[in-house]
Amino acid sequence: MCLSYLVVLMPLGASLVGAAPVEDYDLPSYAHLREKIDAGEDITVLYFGGSITVGAMTWPQHGTNAAGEAYDYRGESDPERFSWRARTFAWLREHYEKRPGQFRMVNAAVGATDSELGAYRLADHVLANHPDLLFIEFAINDNGAGRLSDDPEADGSIYRRLSSIISRVREANPNAAVFLPVSAARDLKPEVPAYFETARAHHKRFAEMYHVPYLDICKVFFEDPLPEGVTRENVFDGPDNPGCAVHPSPRGHQAFAEAVCRALDGLLTSHRFPFAQPRREDWFAPYPVNPAYVTADKLPTGEGWSLRDGTAFAHLATHVCHETKVLFTDQSGAKLVLPFSGSSVYMWGQQHYAGLGDISGRLQVSVDGEVRACFADADHREPGDQLLQRMMPVVRDLDPSEPHVLEIVTVPPPDGVATRIGLYGIGLDQPTPSE
Q: Under CATH, which architecture does the 23-275 domain have?
């Protein structure tokens, strides 16, 4: 079955994707998935990605949009009912479930995070749940790695990140069925904006190279026929703000979901999918290579840090981080010291605290006594500082054969703003057994 609404990937670099005609290829993982479904076995459907997969939508839910027109989505903005994630899961249950409760949803999506952090948290949040069907949606949040990925071999490239994720999924379960919905942004056309478009193109190239079924959501939104009531103008809606720039409206989530369901129906019926070239057999060198994720409750509390409940995921019963703790500080000069071995360090922080407000303050991070990164809230960044947010990459160039010491210290901003900084955990790219 050839799905006509998919983009045929033309080469942006001939060495990556050739201009071969599209051909349907067998996908044994989808045949295996269909066999398990038909046999009535338990099926775990896992959603891994960013805020679009969480279910973020147009905000505010009603008002006047960028064109000066009134809109109101208050009756259809519940992400557990109207997101593309919820809609596709409901469709799978309605059309394929052989007995009540056969399908289980696991929500492993985290807003404002990319595939690099995804590679670090894969073992705890994905592999531990043994997915039979895995959705991976990071294209929008990988925009910062878009141009870097023009060199697929670069540390942190999209190719190496996705190789780290999918090669480990395949190693854990060769029969796991994987699907990549390649997320889109508001007004994303082939020419603008370049950083979103580049990341989107690299995700599609990776999917083509490794025969991972995918869907180009930009094409769904801006070229393909849309469901009744959905228009090019309302797939994204609301005022011009950063959230509305990347989060579809409920109408957009509907179109997103229906296109994914059409693709899944074809895959579960024919077990075939069209690609423009034979599958590449060898993975790009994974990055991170040997990731370990140290959760907050396993980190040393240090001076001025303490474990606390009530994270941003506490109200989401189906989320992998439902019971996760955060290592929190509201003190200037709080210090955390972590000896480790490895080549890279990546920190994951919390963005908002119930009853307290957004993250604030400044964080200085040193490795082996040398300051390698400073993170500050948006209002207090100094030249050279990175944004204090969920994703905090620290370093990628350490000698993995040597021991290292990570030191994290909170620094008071000059105007005395309150310090509110929390860590879910720290990712370390540890030495492989041969190193």
A: 3-Layer(aba) Sandwich (3.40)
Domain borders along the chain are: 23-275, 291-429
Domain 291-429: top CATH class = mainly beta
Pairing of strands 133-137, 177-182: parallel
pLDDT in tens, 378-394: 888 999 999 999 999 99
Max mean pLDDT among 306-310, 351-355, 360-364 falls in: 360-364
Distance (Å, rounded) from C-alpha 172 to C-alpha 182? 24
Burial class, 72, CB count within 10 angstroms (exposed 0-12 / middle 13-18 / buried 19+): exposed
pTM: 0.93
Tokens of 236: 């994204």
* CA separation, residue 410 to residues 301, 342, 418 (Å): 14, 24, 11
- Cβ-contact 217, 138 below 8 angstroms: no
Bridge-based pairing state of the strands 272-275 and 23-26: antiparallel
Q: Which two tokens stand for residue 139?
A: 């294209």
- Rounded Cα gap, residues 59 and 240, in angstroms: 10
pLDDT digits (tens, 9 = 90+) for 243-290: 999 999 999 999 999 999 999 999 999 999 999 999 999 999 999 999
* Total number of residues shown for the chain: 435
Mean predicted lDDT score pLDDT of the chain: 91
